[in-house]
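User: Could you go from structure to sequence for me? I need the amino acid at each position, not a summary. Structure tokens:
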């Protein structure tokens, strides 16, 4: 089963959120409509800045943990490696 690790942001160099899912389009949409109360709703973090694709959920979860444990600068570098303009990639999926 395909799985994704993703980084959301609220504005360029703003608040970041790292997540994991098996349905990237659906999950980012849920963030956009503020379906679940919590961090992303509180800080309006709903723009897809970066994502990685994995063949299985276990590998994706391990990658998510690594990214969450990492520093903010590394997350920014990942976003800028895929998305230097900081556009919302959701609309390109």
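Assistant: Here is the amino acid at each position, in order:
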């Amino acid at each position: 089963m395909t799985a994704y690790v993703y980084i959301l942001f609220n504005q360029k160099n703003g608040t970041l959120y790292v997540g994991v899912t098996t349905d990237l389009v659906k999950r980012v949409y849920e963030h956009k409509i503020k379906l679940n109360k919590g961090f992303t709703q509180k800080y309006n973090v709903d723009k897809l800045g970066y994502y990685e694709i994995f063949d299985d959920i276990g590998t994706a979860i391990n990658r998510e943990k690594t990214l969450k444990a990492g520093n903010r600068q590394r997350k920014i570098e990942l976003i800028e490696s895929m998305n230097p303009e900081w556009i919302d990639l959701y609309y390109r999926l």
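One structural detail worth keeping in mind: The longest strand covers residues 47-54.
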